Amino acid sequence: LLVVTEPATEAAVDAIAKRFVFPFVTHRWVGGTLTNFRNIAQRTEYLKKLRADLASGALDKYTKKERVEIDREIKRLEELMGGLEAMTREPDFVVIVDPQLHTTAVREARIRRIPIVALANIDANPDLIDYLVPGNDKAKTSIEWFLGKIEKAIESGVKLRPAAPVEQPATTEGQ
Question: N or C: which end of the chain has fewer CB within 10 A?
Answer without folding.
Answer: C
